[in-house]
Amino acid sequence: MFQGMDVSIGRRMKVLPMLKSLPALNLPDPYFAGTAGFVGSTIEDLHGDMCAFELPAAASESVRRSHDAIRHAYIYAYFSYDLLTMAASQTFPCLELALREQIGHQFAGRVHKNGRPRPAMLDELLKSAKQQNLISSEIEHLSQLRNMFAHGSDTVLNPPMFLTTFEIVTDIIRELYISQQV
To answer: For 68-78, what is each residue's pLDDT tens digit?
Structure first.
């Protein structure tokens, strides 16, 4: 076991290695095994959760690939709980990618004072899509959540917390591509 110093109280503490050993890779994370935190879901439950989050056929391959990577990270969090936070942090770049593909051209030609291109940020893209009635989903607080993950966070999520945000993001992406088909 590694030893570290807990400087806040000035005594030695045990620092557990984060990388699982090779034989333990296919074992459930303690959170899902019920030996730490809460008694979690089975891997079948997690897979079932993600089956509900399909994108329409009109979604681009790049958005689908990004979205599916998030879904896989959620499922594989069964083996490494930290993947849940990684999945959550990637939901916002996926949403931004879909928004840029669908309406990003409307912001073409914008430049910073120094002449460099100034693409629209997530908040601008969301507000613009909402104003154009391309999406009806609630968008309040999404930019704040994105910033929390983009700028580092020690937030520990549980599956229901992740699913709430992922459902909103997936619904927005669905609306974007469905509105383009009409």
So the answer is: 999 999 999 99
